[in-house]
Amino acid sequence: MTATSADFSRPPGPQEAVSLGIDPETLATLRGLRDTYGDLVSMQRPNGRLAYFVNDPVEVRKILVKRHTRYNKGPGFERVKMLLGNGLIVSDGDTWRRSRTMIQPAFSRQKVHDLTDIMLECARTLERRWSAAVAAGETINITEETNRFALDLIVISTFGDDAAPWIATEGNNPFEFLSRDSARDLTVVMRVREVRRLLLELIQARRSRAGQQHFDFMSMYLAARDKSGQPFSDEELLDELITLVVAGFETSANTLNWAWYLLSSHPEIEQAVIDEAGEFLPDAAAVNHDNAGAMVYTQQVLEETLRLYPPVWLFTRRSHSEDEIADFDVPVGTDIYLSPYLLHRTDRYWPNPDTFDPSRFALDDQPKKERPYFPFSLGPRRCLGEYFSFLEMKIHLGLLLPRFRMSLADPGDPGLELGINLRSARDIMLQPSHR
Ligand code: HEM
Asked: Does ligand 1 have an atom closer than 6 angstroms to the CB of 255?
């Protein structure tokens, strides 16, 4: 059975072709289709491909977890490939499995704990800059600041001391274009080429210094071996290192951007985070993974932020084997669309879905397990950086929130920019003062 065969059973949907991208129109389209046809919708795309929009939590879980081997990454990823080559986020099948097995050990809790000092140092850099802003009476562009924090952190965690000269001088970070340039266009291709040239030199220099102990993701990737004892080739390494920076930067930056926005307009929740930070991170000397890990309320705040603003708001897949969704057939070549953003805001599962309420994630709230929630995806392709990102975000908020009172300089809704990542449409400006 293929998507062009006539006799297969498919969910209800519109007769006319439907345009789907990764953009604001697509969110409105998917919402409209769900409201008209229900949780499973089929449609034809203008290119003739069959597409299903799956908004049923049980079926979403099946696609991402139990039946994941029947699906590859879907539409939209061709553009990302320009940037990431064949790195972990975009690769499929045996290539993905080999890389994932080689890379996974670098993300063990123990290894991530060794990066805690870097997380602290990056937060302290912001503390110094924000103190200067308070003294000068300046507002803070928190969107830029969280971008800078997350980018510096992932770049130093990946390249260690080699990244120091990039961070020390403003405008010197070869990855900085990622935070400014969301368009995956020709300028990006040029910049990626430059970055690859630079990283190749770095890889070669590291190899010639073999034996010297560096602790960072790059050293772990260099030491990784597959089942037959082979390391990554230079090309593979370049793809994986760039993938790591891209995967690890914008997602955390956007989550922190939204967290500051939500906290600055919810003073009681903000105070509860400050109280918790006072208990577990009273000063910089107390920052370690145990103390940050114990900040369960801050964790709930971040989980709730990710419910409202999941950075990856739309997942796509393409079937390469036949499957079934509910009682419907999935022919080979069907495009699948899944939206955490829409499911996270469905009132059937999340009462008052637009309200910011971290207590939904309280530990004793058992029904949460039955609710659709997948900001980090689910199953074997689930995010590798989940633990890293919660630790970095707790250290960031735990250190900075008790020191700076932030009020929204422009209280209007910042709006959504629905690209590959869900960003705020306009930068969020905060007026800081010392507490
Ligand atoms: C709040 C922060 C983050 C969120 C919400 C997030 C979300 C996600 C999602 C949804 C995916 C799967 C995408 C898909 O299947 O289409 C993913 C994959 C991935 N993420 Fe994250 N991510 C975050 C932070 C990080 C960080 C900090 C790192 C690295 C340090 C990272 C590394 C990765 C990698 C390597 C993959 C590919 C996994 C694979 O395909 O095997 N992520 N992430």
From this structure: yes
Output DSSP code: residue 429.
Answer: E
Query: Residue 311 corresponds to which tokens in the numbers above?
Result: 């950075």
CB 178 within 8 A of CB 246: yes
How many residues in the chain? 435
* Residue owning tokens 């058992």: 366
From 232, 220, 225, select the one nearest 157 (Cα to Cα): 220
- Phi, psi (deg, nearest 5) at residue 282: -60, -30
What's the gap in Å between 383 CA and the centre of ligand 1?
A: 4
Q: Is 241 in the pocket of ligand 1 (CB under 6 A)?
A: no
Phi, psi torsion values for 433, nearest 5 degrees: -145, 160
How are beta strands 71-73 and 315-319 bridged, if at all?
antiparallel
Q: Is the shortest distance between the CB of 72 and ligand 1 below 6 Å?
A: no
Ligand 1 pocket member 100 (CB < 6 A): yes
pLDDT of residue 210: 66
- What are the φ and ψ backbone dihedral angles of 54, each rounded to 5 degrees? -110, 115
CA pair distance 294, 276, nearest whole angstrom: 9
Measured from the CA of 340, which atom of ligand 1 is nearest?
Answer: 10
Residue ranges of the chain with pLDDT lower than 70? 1-6, 180-186, 210-214, 363-369
Q: Which two tokens stand for residue 247?
A: 């995967």
* C-beta 312 within 6 A of ligand 1: yes
Q: Rounded to an integer, what distance in angstroms lies between the CA atom of residue 140 and that of residue 410?
A: 11
| The pLDDT of residue 345 | 97
The pTM of this model reads 0.95
